[in-house]
Amino acid sequence: MPLTAVVLAAGLGTRMRSPLAKVLHPLLGRPMVGWIVQALQDVGADVVVVVHHHEEQVRAALSPWKVRFARQESPRGTGDAVSAALAELPASGAVVVTAGDTPLLTARSIQRLIEAHRGECSVAAFEAPDPTGYGRMVPGVGIVEDAACSPEQRRIRIVNSGLYLFDATYLKAQLPRLQPHPPKDELWLTDLVGPNAQVLADFPPDEFLGVNDRAQLAEARGILRRRVNRVWAASGVDFADLDSVMVDVSVTLAPGASLANGVVVTGKSLIAGEVGAHCVLHDTVVFAGARINPGSICDGAEVHSGAIVGPLARLRPGADIRAGAHVGNFCEVKNTIVHEGAKANHLSYLGDADIGAGANIGAGTITCNYDGVRKHRTTIGPGAFIGSNTSLVAPITVGDGAIVGAGSTLTQDVPADAIAVERSPTKLTLASADRLRAVYRRRGAK
Ligand code: UD1
Ligand code: CA
To answer: What's the structural domain count of the chain?
Structure first.
């Protein structure tokens, strides 16, 4: 039997106070409505999304999911929203209807509703600690909206979740018959849930947290974060803390990976190694046996087995830290291969460079890769030694095993095995430091 799903996402979401459509606010790198669509596709549904406000952005954001869209011309309530999708629905079969702003809804709950469905309509309900604002499930009647409740009905705590399963024939026959409710003349989908509807009352309330403002968005983000982390933890990933580590849904973690407090991993990252506290990794690969020490920031980098990065290192796109190499504190690496076993342990900028295997890059080494117009490459041979505070003015090559003296500003290539020092001679004036201090003191006393 075909299963179609209608996601109602035409609302504006004024309370978000955001220029972005409410349903597009990201949760772990996926737009809010993407979570619902994914859950529906996980149970095999063919998804139709009803749009109106920010239509183009919603369409674009959902392109990875291959859904169909229906446009609600002028939103007049949830009944009107489903009517807008009528043309997209099959003549028969089951139709799930849900809102686009409940990102915590799981495929498991949707599946439960599908399996329990009987007759023309089933509705997922739950017991709300505070039912204010929800439609109440009134036995023998159906759903009574909050505004329409008698004082007695208002005390009912079993409420409508907004997740329904309709028989398509019933929906097609009944939607055109909905009557508008004053004062706004809205059409309510809830009017199709009559006394004969099957009410399934024990759905988990936390899956229906509606996101209407930024506080609820943050709350939903926290719940999803924990949910995603738990799945990775079950697969063998070590988390210092399930709440403080943020892993986007686009990320892959390998069994044996370990993530300390405050780690943020986004984009197409793949982590198999060890990541220290408060590192931020985007589109980065950390191989098993590699370690990123605390406070490092990596974007578009690769760190191979046995390599050590940080603490407080910055890897930018194209940084490729090969096996056993070290990139230490306050080093910035961009578009550079640091080959096997090479070390840049302190305070360096390595940009557009090749650092040969086993080379030693002294503290404060700078590759001067930019002449104000173009970028140039620096090549350092295997086993070369670059003394501290050296400026390598690119394009430049330092040959295999060469030694560059500290403080040099090099503008020409250094052949293999050569020693290069570019340094003005020291001027020594013997037995005069004390005399100079005395002169200074006299001046200060005046
Ligand atoms: C609705 C239900 C209520 C239920 C509650 C659960 C109705 C009349 N009431 O109330 O019984 O307890 O959900 O959260 O259905 N939307 C459109 N087009 C419209 C109107 C709404 O796409 O013209 C979308 C909204 O963007 C939202 C969803 O439908 O995603 C629900 O609409 P909303 O106005 O929030 O309904 P509630 O008042 O919460
Ligand atoms: Ca709502």
So the answer is: 2
Q: Which ligand is nearest to the CA of 100?
A: 1
Strand pairing category for 136-138 and 142-144:
antiparallel
Domain range for 172 is: 3-214
Give the ligand whose atoms come closest to the C-alpha of residue 77: 1
Q: Is residue 446 part of a domain?
A: no
- Going from the Cα of 154 to the center of ligand 2, the distance in angstroms, rounded, reads 17
Of ligand 1's atoms, which has the minimum distance to the CA of residue 145? Answer: 11
Residues 322 and 207 in one domain: no
Q: Are residues 185 and 312 in the same domain?
A: no
- Catalytic center residues: 346
Same domain, 59 and 184: yes
- pTM for the model: 0.93
Tens-place pLDDT, residues 161-193 = 999 999 999 999 999 999 999 999 999 999 999
